[in-house]
Write a structure and sequence with these properties.
alpha+beta; 28% strand
Length: 104
C-alpha cells in the first residue's frame, strides 16, 4: 500500500473502520464494511450520495479511471475532521447494505 493510501486511512479512521483493498490497478475504500470510493493514483474519489452531493457540492466531479461509468467526487479536504465524520456517516446511512454471498 502506498503513502497516500495510508494517509487516507489514517485521516478517515476518525470516523470509523477504514479498509483499503487493491483492485484492478487501483484501490477500493471501505468504511465500516461499505464501499465508499476509490483511490486512483494519488486522488481519492467518493461515491455520490445525497450527503456527498450536499457536503461536497463544490468538489470536482470526475470519472476515477478510463472507461468508468460512475462520476465521483474528487475529495481533497483532508484537514476538516468534522466534515469527514459527517460525510462518512451520512454516506454510510445512504449506501446499500453489502449483498450476502450466495451459497454454492
Amino acid at each position: 500500500m502506498n503513502e497516500f493510501n495510508e494517509y487516507v486511512r489514517d485521516v478517515f479512521s476518525a470516523a470509523g473502520d477504514i479498509v483499503i483493498r487493491s483492485m484492478m490497478g487501483g484501490y477500493l475504500v471501505y468504511f465500516n464494511g461499505k464501499l465508499i470510493g476509490d483511490v486512483c493514483g494519488d486522488e481519492l474519489f467518493l461515491k455520490r450520495t445525497p450527503t456527498s452531493d450536499r457536503l461536497l457540492a463544490d468538489s470536482e466531479l470526475r470519472y476515477p479511471y478510463e472507461e468508468s461509468k460512475t462520476l465521483m467526487h474528487v475529495f481533497d479536504n483532508f484537514d476538516d475532521k468534522a466534515l469527514i465524520v459527517e460525510l462518512l456517516n451520512g454516506m454510510y446511512a445512504e449506501l446499500p447494505e453489502k449483498k450476502p454471498k450466495k451459497a454454492r
